Write the structure tokens for this entry.
Amino acid sequence: MSVATIRLNGLLAIGIESSYPVSFGKKRIKLHTVLSKMTVEAPEKAVAFFAINGTRAVKNDWVNDGDIIDIFPVVTGG
Amino acid sequence: MSYQWEILRVNLSSGKAMREPLNRAWAEKYFGGRGLGAKYLYEELKGGVDPLSPYNKIILATGPLSGTIVPCSGKLAVISKSPATGAIVDSSIGGTFASQLKFAGYDLLIIEGRAKKPVYVNIKDDAVEIHSAGHLWGKGIGETERALHEKHGANTAVLSIGPAGENLVPFSCAGSENRQAGRGGIGSIMGSKNLKAITCSGSKDVTVPDMLRFLELIKRLMHEDVLSNTNQWVYLTGTPMIVDMSNAAGILPTRNYQDGMFEGARNINAERIQNLRPEKRACFTCALGCGNYLRFKGGGVEGPEYETLALAGSGCGIDNLEAIARFNAECDELGMDTISLGNVISFAMEMTEKGIKDFGLRFGDVATYLKMPHLVAFKEGIGQELSLGVRQLSQRYGGEEFAMQVKGLELPGYDPRGSWGMGLAYATASRGGCHMSAWPVADEAFGKVNPFTIEGKAQMVITGQHYNAIKFSLILCDFWALSLDTMSQIMSCVLNRDVPVSELEVAGERIWNMLRLFNVREGFKITDDSLPERIFKDALKSGTPAGRVLPREQFDTMLQEYYQLRGWDREGIPTPEKLAQLNV
């Protein structure tokens, strides 16, 4: 069994655990498959982008055992 | 109407203060803040004026919403000609100064001339006095503020400068209530006028035409818009959230933009700041409260904001959060822009490490880094040279290709090699390397638009520039992500006439052209709408943008498309037809 950790950043984590594991049976799977296994739903509109191990990723990228997936919220000014 | 229809003009040379009517035709076309301030400065200043001479002026501009309970309307715009760039500068600052100026009965305050000795101006409704500031000269911003609060009351708003402004450091700022009008050297302009501070308190009404309609609108906007999830990130984490995002997108300035990913990013991110349990602070009428106030042994600071974490943190190879907070606190007290000083230090670090000029500074050297704010503000030791800013320093010692500035203003924290539209936004911003004119990075590096193409970017930047031009003229805070339609509803209510979105769009374009006209008159050319050589030649090393530059020919194409869409000529000069169309 492989395990990746999902981290919800900023407002995406309001009122819920900001970090939790997602397990999968294969050595590696696509990011979109991991996201479909999420137990909480991050509204599409509120999500800016994803990162795997600190580097921006797209939904078609591979996720491996032990990877950390960040989900970043939309920000509107710096 | 929410305007007071009056200007206060203070001439420090003659020691006289005069009240005069606000130009209604200009207010109708430029509203307030950035736009109205730019119009007044353009009309009142002759081209070629030395920014540090008595002939330069400082305009403090409120907007039609200042002093009302419209959320996030507490900001003040400070407009002048910048000593750092020679271009127009507008810098906004939160707190309570704008509302107090409005309560005192003024839409604009214009400061001109130069006092013979250090002074501060005290405004209390109709009474305007110029006092000696000899006892305050040399003091920090917080210290000055406390002294003036003691004398004039805690509810008096104080805008002041620190030693950096007094010593004419070109990236010195003015501060109030732990916030700063940070960019472009506003502090040194006040210093050149021997103006230590302005204090202001007022007791007059700011009225709206139909209070019940107004209250209903504000109530609805608070529930449906301001306090919606879209804006909650501002309170929850504030701008430090962007550290991890920039790092993941590969655009976090690292060691003077030599890379876009910083190995120490996790040590200076929002999570680390939240672990320190910051107090939250907000400006007048703000429902969002972006300010994180951190305490550390021996002090505290409102911040650090993302820009400070990026330029004075990863940019200098520093991942010690407490050191960055201390650096930030000292810059705030001495009155210096952390974006520019961070850039200057990181440039000096690279110069040293490359063996071009030994400034005794190395990436990650916390001890030496922490000495820099004092040395620069007082122009002591190497601080004398560093106080020149990145552009002048590179002209003197070399390294111009990695002097990260545009028009003399040091770059903020988004590497354009990983966000090509951001490169165009920097290159064309009226005040130089600026992230407050347009922020396409939200759609590119942080969004769903391909950051590595020029397609559609010219229009994206133009739309953003117009949006911010009108937003910062009303004046509303950057952090309320409201639509033009919402602005239209607010303005229609406050001005008691129909203010359609189309009128706001045209006003945004008009303001942008006014800013451009100012710079054209000062001699700025197409060659000034450019980026540091590093952006065109040195590829980023890490993450998504690894191996990327912003190719110069693509940049040039994007710039020409930008001029064309704007109705400017090929040299970037607004055409007579465009100016006539906009009624500039």
The longest helix of chain B spans residues 501-521. The domain at 233-390 of chain B is CATH 1.10.569.10 (Aldehyde Ferredoxin Oxidoreductase Protein, subunit A; domain 2).
